[in-house]
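ping. complex inputs:
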Amino acid sequence: MTSTVLQASHINKYFYEPEKFQVLQNINFEVKKGEFLSIIGKSGCGKSTLLYILSTMDTDYEGVLEVNGSRLTGLSQDRLADFRNEHLGFVFQFHFLLPEFTVLQNVMLPAQKLGKYTTKEIEERAYEKLKLVNMEAHARKQSSKLSGGQQQRVAIARALINDPTIIMGDEPTGNLDKANSNLVFDIFRKISHENGQTIITVTHDPDFAKGGDRIIEMSDGKIISGG
Amino acid sequence: MNLNLSFQIAQTHLLAKKRQTLVAMLGVTFGIAMFIVMISFMQGVNQFLEDSALDASPHVRIYNEVNTQRPSILDDTFKQQGTINIVYHQKPKQQLARIKNGLQMVSMIEQMPGVLGVSPEVSSQAFFNNGPIQISGVIAGIDYPRENRLYDLDSRIKTGSFKSLLANPNGIVLGATLARKLNVRLGDKVSVTTPLGGNITLRVVGTFGFGIGTIDNIRCYTSISTVQEILGKDASYITDIHIKMNDPLQAISFGKKLSKQFNTYAEDWSTANQAILAGEKIRNVMTFVVSMTLLVVAGFGIYNIMNMNVINKLKDIAILKATGFGSKDVVAVFLLQAIIIGLAGGLLGLGIGFGISLLLSITPFDTGDMISLKTFPVIFRAEYYIMGLVFGLITTILAGYFPSRKASKIDPVAILRG
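pong. complex structure:
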């Protein structure tokens, strides 16, 4: 019996601009440990909005969000930041590395923020994660000098550095070609199955979604299947 | 909050945009350098003027003020009866400039605490005859050892010596410009006439220069007894008592005390030199206004650059927040950048300010005979440099704080969703 790592209950969310509009309607679901979950749906169905609520960055919603058994709804921004740092990893569509820093520094930053290990240990761990995404050869390069696919792999290494419970992806392959998409998919597959880390991604890519353990399909702010 | 990490990020940001960083830094550098130069120079001028005023004038001077205004006898007699009394062209009373019991006062004041020295003087208007022309001036009879203690006369001597006054009762020491006007040199004779008609011929035993026109132009020194002799007065006749204090600031209250105790007129240096003190205040205000303006301008420069910096770094801020950096960390990242700019620019400014002050202090400045200055007066004091750095840091912190706070309030979702 695997345990639940994320539980969302009765999530409602409204947009107020340009006029009041309900984006999410009574969303209820839970995610098990080690699960590879994809959320799909047409553009504007609210799947990204849902992901950002799950990521704790968006706090303007109704309902209750629990991760790892602790209730996150209502916590202060700074407490949530600390929580994200330790328990959540992110991979975004546009890779979003810090351009002035080297690949290695980009990967190390969240771990330095967490401060659980010495700089030496963090560097070793960062190399380990870079090896996992096959980017260790580029560790000393400025991150802005890498190609899109390479940057995305570095971003995954960064998401993994603190061994988070959940890794979230917002269209992680949305900006990549087929070969790179497959590479990213394989890495996700590996970390969910071998490390038991949970993966939640929002995607438009049906092949990517099919390869996972479960698919939640959304339409007009509601879960229509897989919840 | 991890300051080390924030510092590391701030440093990387600054080094990635070297030119922008340098421009922001130079703003502070210029402001602080100007502040240092202005304050060092202005305070130097203040100090110079104050010194020259204090050096050549007594801290407290006791003398009899000759008052030409006095109530008429008519007024004294009919003052209650509501009459109108008119007296035309009332003449002043015959009044002596002497201080009553002057010599006793000198020895009493000498015993008082806080007094550095007391010197009695007999001074009178005098005419110096040079052929058919008379040049007017002031002849002061002094007790050389005492007067020397007050004004360090020996250091002002140009030719001859003051000491000869002791040996030669008919000796006179002339102001340097006065001697030039009279066309006399050491050993020449000068004829001195007082307004009351006394006349004496004295031998020049020295010339002096205080570097102050109003003194070097008209003043000469001889012994007390010589002046008493020309005036036809006895040996107790004293017109001025000059007092120097250990602390010039005490002179003001001390003067009031003396004036009460001896019932005479006592004037302190701040009253005698009000123009200098007022000028000092104005210069201080000016220095601070100009320096503050420069620093505020530099502050706005930093504010603009930091603001632009934050706008350029929106994505980075969002990513930092997504990976778990709190608002305090983000504030620290940007505030540290401002502080580094302020500190580096400030230190460079102090160096440049010091350099310019140093150059100024060795620049020859020819003022002629009137003022005893060879270079611009500049003061070097650690306080000014500390003050400059503190002001610089405060401006940069203020200028950096608002953009940093803005950065910390950025909603990462809005940026990450694109």
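The radius of gyration of chain A is 17 Å.
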